[in-house]
Design brief:
This protein has about 230 residues and is α/β, with parallel strands linked by helices. Helices cover about 45% and strands about 15% of the residues. The chain has nine helices and five strands; from the N terminus they run ββαααβαααβαβαα. It has helices at about 25-45, 55-60, 70-85, 95-100, 105-110, 115-130, 155-165, 185-205, 220-225; strands at about 1-10, 15-25, 90-95, 140-145, 175-180. Strand 1 (about 1-10) and strand 2 form a beta hairpin.
């Protein structure tokens, strides 16, 4: 069985970019990764179970108040080392809000919010990936887990069910579950990807930074071994 864990970064009401991203992998690997992730977070939390939130870590807020740059990079280094022990495929979708806002009204009403468009992009990626699992073959269905989103989770389930019923790849979409990442720790890995997908878009000329510049988090980390968002 395969499983995908998805997180989000940015909100259409207060961000130029709305992104969703995560990893697709084998259920057996996900179980082992969850155990080791908990141990890693507890180690870096000095016995406390840290809840990994990339934007909080980058800004050194929340649970990371008082951390310095060296401690932050040490955590990220261990995170990336752990992820490289597993065969995970990175997936993601991103919407530039100012581009979305100029779509015809009928299109905006159909999508509902950039969040749903990002979700459809990710489900399309999941449906198109051809990956062997340890328990089955290329046509295994995928259980999808999303970080709990109180605003969109109900309609998110409806969106998932509609795509599963009407898309050419729908037979590969097994189920969707919305959960909290402090309980389902595998979702914390998705938070990392969603954040980096958003930042990569900003680095790609949408913002004021030079185009095609990779942040240090991505160099020698998820991109070399994983499939980049968008399938390229």
């Amino acid at each position: 069985m395969l499983a995908a864990y998805l997180g989000e970064s940015g909100h259409s009401g207060d961000s130029r970019i709305v992104a969703m991203g995560g990893f697709l992998g084998n259920a057996i690997d996900w179980e082992e990764l969850g155990k080791r992730w908990r141990e890693l977070m507890r180690h870096h939390g000095n016995g406390k179970d840290l809840v990994f939130h990339m934007s909080h870590l980058e800004s050194l807020i929340g649970e990371f108040v008082g951390w310095d740059e060296a401690r932050k990079r040490a955590l990220l280094s261990d995170v990336f080392t752990l992820l490289q022990d597993f065969f995970l495929i990175a997936i993601g979708g991103v919407v530039v809000v100012e581009h979305y806002d100029v779509l015809p009204d009928i299109a905006q009403r159909a999508f509902g919010d950039p969040w749903f468009l990002c979700m459809q992009m990710c489900l399309g990626e999941i449906g198109s990936v051809q990956m062997l699992s340890k328990q089955g073959g290329l046509n295994d269905s995928v259980a999808v887990f999303c970080d709990r989103q109180m605003e969109f989770s109900g309609r998110g389930t409806d969106c998932f069910n509609y795509i599963a019923a009407h898309s050419s790849f729908g037979k590969r979409l097994g189920s969707i579950t919305f959960a909290s990442k402090d309980i389902l720790v595998q979702l914390q890995t998705a938070d990392l990807v969603a954040y980096e997908v958003k930042k990569y878009t900003l680095f790609d000329g949408i913002g004021d930074r030079p185009p095609k510049v990779l942040r240090y988090q991505l160099v020698n980390s998820i991109w070399p071994k994983a499939k980049a968002p968008g399938g390229d």
